[in-house]
Design brief:
The protein contains one helix and nine strands; from the N terminus they run βββαββββββ.
């Protein structure tokens, strides 16, 4: 099973950033699609990416973020069946200024979300 997540981020009116990092963790049992990450890098949506924690956490490096939303799609693929299906499976997303990490926005997202849209940092 593949989930397509629309990730959007923007900085508030207090100023733009010349370098930002978006950290996204996938819900339990899912991992990020490396081909999609390479595609985003090739199309210059992101400058670089790194996977951690057995491909369940990705760091996306952006050249800049301003008041206008920057949006792109991430793909996750189910790799393991989670045994407790009564639990609401969630992931986490955070965006922060590389040079001023105290400037950040964060959110949780859920597999049950119909929109499958993650908005962080507005």
């Amino acid at each position: 099973m593949v989930f397509n997540w629309l990730v959007c981020t923007a900085m508030d009116a207090n100023g733009d950033t010349t370098r930002a990092i978006i950290e996204v963790t996938s819900p339990p049992g899912f991992e990020f699609d490396e081909q999609r990450l390479d595609f985003l890098k090739d199309r210059q949506f992101i400058k670089e990416w790194e996977l951690y924690d057995n491909d369940f956490r990705v760091y996306l490096y952006l050249n800049s973020v301003n008041e206008a939303y920057t949006c792109f799609n991430l793909l996750t693929t189910r790799t393991n069946e989670v045994t407790n299906r009564n639990r609401n499976l969630r992931g986490y997303a955070k965006v922060y200024d590389y040079y001023a990490p105290r400037r950040y926005g964060e959110t949780f997202y859920f597999l049950s979300d119909r929109q499958q849209k993650i908005i962080v940092g507005d």
